[in-house]
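Batch 3, record 17
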Amino acid sequence: GDSVTQMEGPVTLSEEAFLTINCTYTATGYPSLFWYVQYPGEGLQLLLKATKADDKGSNKGFEATYRKETTSFHLEKGSVQVSDSAVYFCALSDQSGGGADGLTFGKGTHLIIQP
Amino acid sequence: DTEVTQTPKHLVMGMTNKKSLKCEQHMGHRAMYWYKQKAKKPPELMFVYSYEKLSINESVPSRFSPECPNSSLLNLHLHALQPEDSALYLCASSQAPGQGAQDQPQHFGDGTRLSIL
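Prediction for the assembled complex:
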């Protein structure tokens, strides 16, 4: 079955540091890939997405590139802020079977940004 | 603000109570989902509705009963829950297969935080 592996953390960085959160996946079909962010006490917000190989998703300074050859979708940001502190989930969706299906999530990475 | 609205935000109930969680979206999505999320864990899929029909039930105990009365609403009826059912319950919606491209993102509500006494 499909699976997503991501570094769990917590990851602690200083403000303005460079961020990378690694994510790799296994899937039988041709999935779409997503990064979601969850702030304390809230639901999940879509951060960015990529639907095919070599697509780059970007939003709010975050970027991730769909790498089919390495089955990866690493999240990066050049300069993090305290407000980026949250839990980040890498996820995939594979509807090649034809029906609506749930997302397959990684375990989540807790990011802590210190001033 | 999210485009998927869940009520109530918090719910405390005894093990013998009956209550319902509600979810509403007006994005025209025809796929709707219930997830359960325990602390420090990713969401776990419970149910999927596609075009108002239940298409996936992930072996959820019968004390959880979903209902999709129309294309905008999704309910989760609760009865005789156990303490281990305490969790954040998240609703999500997306375009269903046939509405557009495959694998469209799911949009989540802020959840209902459920505590079972």
